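Structure in, sequence out. Go:
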């Protein structure tokens, strides 16, 4: 596939053509299929994308059309994004785990005529809602398994679309080059919908120019090359995956690797051994929980050795990674021994042996969790951003890592703090607009060109940004002390036994909390103590489990008591919910963020019980399953008191 060296590489299709020209035989994409890794070079990917684009054009896809993409991370779904962009269209990735009815809003709002899905499961969702989406004309599917008896004329296998596209390309060889030449850097390249924590999702329109600028910033900042390997397993609809697995891959020319399935991610991670890794905090939390469960099941000698060397790592590991002076010779020797016996094998088990740079974003990560990974030699860093800013506002420079900050503004990005404490951002990476929402666009970007993030934060003395919470969630206790619920919740979620937490306290005289226990970690803990249980609800209400969680809550309280700014936010009372918070029940977004207002309204009777001194409260809750079935979960929830410590006030 020919490409010219002249001209600006200012759109994703032009970047793809350039890679096909300068590194055509290097691996661009891998996918594990039936246990075997399949590899496509840059020149092969360029040919496949061109064929898909021609096939879409043959079906009537036109410049300005929006193409929905639904499924797990699959090469041909990424390629379909670029194919739409070749034709001047816009890729609209959607969350693959959303139920059919949740997809209706985006399909209608974006006026989707074409959708590319992964498999039969996603096809069935589209068929279920097609009558509600009058614009939807063509459904293309990647995996043909189970599709033999589907006879609808609007269904097309990608294999046949590609075959038709190759014929179209042979008959019209100038068509694709002409379409790519028409593309502009300011054209919208992708539309990512917000999670909709407070209302209907909004389509965030990002141009080629904005995402390429964000990608170039990160590539230059961390000195990424075309030799990097990254595992692409996070939802394609999430801005983080689009930045790391699509935009940065097309800017730097490195290899993306798609796992066989969600169940094989850990195995595939170890096999690939990525050099560049990205995950939200919950993934790092789950990995740590898995490690702790395995260590609890290990022999006495192994367990003691693990805890001894982890104490050494906690004491000096992060400082050694950052090359800081002041670490004693004995600690360096012990750390080297620990690296041989514990840290190295642990990184290998986690699939992190080759990682040069790892990032986390999407939510605040607990400082203790952050320190754990850096202490065992993983160069984990935080970045800060949002869908509207291409996920790249602040980055942490090497050797300037702070566990309670999100770093400094990225190159070319301006950040300032408004009078009310809100973080404002200006730069090339800002959204072009919210789709068909000029009111929301005008509301979020002020006259000076600053985007209002909705986050509350401040700069420390070294110029590092610290995020406190969502500005709308930061409140005050009845005594006037600041209450930042997310700050407290993150401290709770560091414990392996706590999966989710929701804190309440605004305008009240104390803080109370809902807790979700981690079924895997607490179930393992219970089994080792011969505590019988019948499912989550039964386990969550065991007296022994309450004592376990109470110890975690009181440890957090002890930590909070030493921080004057949040010392009043110690948790006085808590309960363990009878069910896990779930996106299917609208309690979490698809990115696993708590819909705080919805949860407070849904469980108002529990909040009232916490604050009126009750020792228990009966509740019955309707739950939904992915297939549309509903059921009810009922329980008499215990309410426990936690020990709090006197607030340590600084002398005036």
């Amino acid at each position: 596939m020919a490409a010219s060296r002249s001209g600006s590489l200012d759109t994703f299709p032009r970047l793809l053509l350039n890679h096909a020209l300068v590194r055509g035989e290097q691996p661009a994409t891998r996918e594990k299929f039936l246990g075997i890794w399949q590899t496509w070079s840059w020149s092969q990917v360029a040919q496949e994308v061109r064929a898909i684009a021609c096939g879409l054009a043959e079906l009537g896809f036109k410049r300005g059309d929006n193409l929905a993409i639904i499924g797990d991370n699959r090469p041909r779904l990424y390629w379909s994004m670029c194919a739409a962009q070749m034709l001047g269209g816009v890729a609209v990735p959607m969350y693959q785990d959303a139920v059919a009815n949740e997809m209706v809003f985006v399909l209608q709002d974006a006026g989707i005529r074409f959708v590319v899905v992964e498999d039969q499961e996603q096809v069935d969702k589209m068929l279920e809602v097609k009558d509600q989406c009058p614009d939807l004309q063509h459904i293309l599917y990647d995996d043909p398994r189970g599709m033999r008896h589907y006879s609808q004329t609007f269904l097309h296998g990608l294999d046949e679309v590609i075959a038709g596209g190759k014929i179209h390309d042979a008959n019209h060889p100038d068509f694709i080059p002409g379409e790519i030449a028409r593309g502009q850097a300011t054209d919208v390249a992708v539309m990512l919908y917000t999670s909709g924590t407070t209302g209907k999702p909004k389509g965030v329109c990002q141009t080629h120019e904005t995402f390429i600028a964000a990608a170039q910033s990160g590539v230059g900042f961390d000195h990424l090359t075309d030799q990097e390997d990254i595992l692409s397993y996070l939802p394609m609809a999430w801005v983080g995956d689009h930045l790391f697995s699509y935009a940065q891959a097309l800017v730097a020319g490195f290899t993306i690797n798609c796992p066989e399935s969600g169940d094989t991610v850990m195995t595939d991670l170890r096999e690939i051994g990525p050099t560049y890794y990205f995950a939200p905090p919950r993934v790092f939390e789950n990995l740590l929980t898995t490690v702790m469960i395995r260590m609890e099941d290990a022999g006495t000698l192994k367990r003691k050795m693990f805890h001894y060397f982890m104490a050494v790592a906690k004491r000096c590991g992060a400082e050694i990674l950052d090359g800081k002076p002041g670490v004693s010779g004995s600690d360096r020797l012990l750390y080297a021994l620990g690296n041989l016996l514990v840290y190295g094998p642990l990184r290998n088990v986690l699939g992190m042996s080759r990682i040069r740079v790892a990032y986390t974003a999407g939510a605040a990560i607990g400082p203790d969790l952050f320190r754990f990974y850096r202490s065992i030699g993983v160069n984990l860093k935080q970045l800060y951003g949002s869908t509207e800013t291409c996920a790249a506002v602040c980055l942490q420079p090497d050797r300037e890592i702070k566990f309670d900050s999100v770093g400094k503004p990225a190159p070319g990005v301006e950040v300032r703090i408004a009078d009310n404490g809100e973080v404002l951002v200006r730069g090339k990476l800002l959204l072009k607009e919210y789709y068909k929402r000029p009111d929301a666009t005008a509301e979020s970007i002020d006259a000076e060109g600053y985007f209002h993030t909705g986050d509350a934060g401040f700069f420390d003395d070294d110029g590092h940004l610290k995020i406190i919470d969502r500005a709308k969630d930061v409140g005050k206790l009845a005594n006037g002390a600041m209450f930042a619920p997310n700050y407290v919740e993150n401290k709770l979620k560091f414990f392996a036994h706590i999966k989710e937490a929701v804190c309440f306290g605004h305008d009240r005289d104390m803080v109370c909390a809902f807790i979700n226990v981690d079924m895997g970690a607490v179930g393992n803990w219970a089994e080792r103590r011969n505590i019988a249980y019948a499912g989550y609800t039964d386990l969550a209400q065991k007296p022994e489990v309450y004592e376990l969680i109470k110890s975690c809550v009181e440890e957090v309280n002890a930590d909070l008591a030493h921080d004057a700014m949040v010392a009043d936010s110690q948790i006085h009372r808590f309960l363990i919910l009878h069910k896990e918070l779930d996106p299917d029940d609208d309690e979490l977004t698809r990115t696993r963020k708590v819909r705080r207002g919805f949860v407070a309204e849904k469980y108002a009777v529990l909040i009232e019980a916490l604050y009126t001194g009750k020792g228990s409260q009966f509740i019955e809750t309707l739950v939904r399953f992915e297939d549309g079935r509903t059921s009810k979960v009922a329980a008499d929830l215990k309410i426990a008191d936690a020990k709090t410590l006197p607030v340590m006030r600084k002398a005036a």
